[in-house]
C-alpha cells in the first residue's frame, strides 16, 4: 500500500494510476515504481550471476574425482606395458588422504602393486629406493 497526503497535486499525478479508498492508494503502482522494481530485480540477478560465477571459479580441483582408461599390452618377453594414466580421488570422499594406500586389481585379481594419495587426492606410485 502507498499512503499519500491529501494534496491536490499528488492526487492529480496519481490519478488514473491508483485507486483511492479513504486516503489509501492501492491496486496500481505509482509512476516510477515499476521501473525501480525492475532495476532492483536486474541488479539482484546480476549479483546472483556474479556469485554463481565466483563459486564456479572457486571449485577446488581436489574435490573432483576421475581417471582415464588404461591400455595394457603384453610384450613378447612376457612383460606388460601400459599407456599413461591419471587417477584422482575427490577430497570430499577421502579424509586424511596422506594415510590412504590404494590397492590395485587387474581384471578383478589383486596384484602386488600399490599407490598412495597426495594432498590433493591425486594417486601416485611410490618407488622404493
Automatic annotation (TrEMBL):
- Domain called Lipin N-terminal: residue spans: 38-129
Q: Which GO terms describe its cellular component?
A: cytosol; endoplasmic reticulum membrane; nucleus
GO BP annotations of the record are: cellular response to insulin stimulus; fatty acid catabolic process; positive regulation of transcription by RNA polymerase II; triglyceride biosynthetic process
Example GO molecular function: phosphatidate phosphatase activity
Q: Which InterPro entries does UniProt cross-reference here?
A: LIPIN, Lipin_N
The name under which this protein is listed is LPIN2 isoform 3
Q: Which organism is it from?
A: Pongo abelii (Sumatran orangutan)
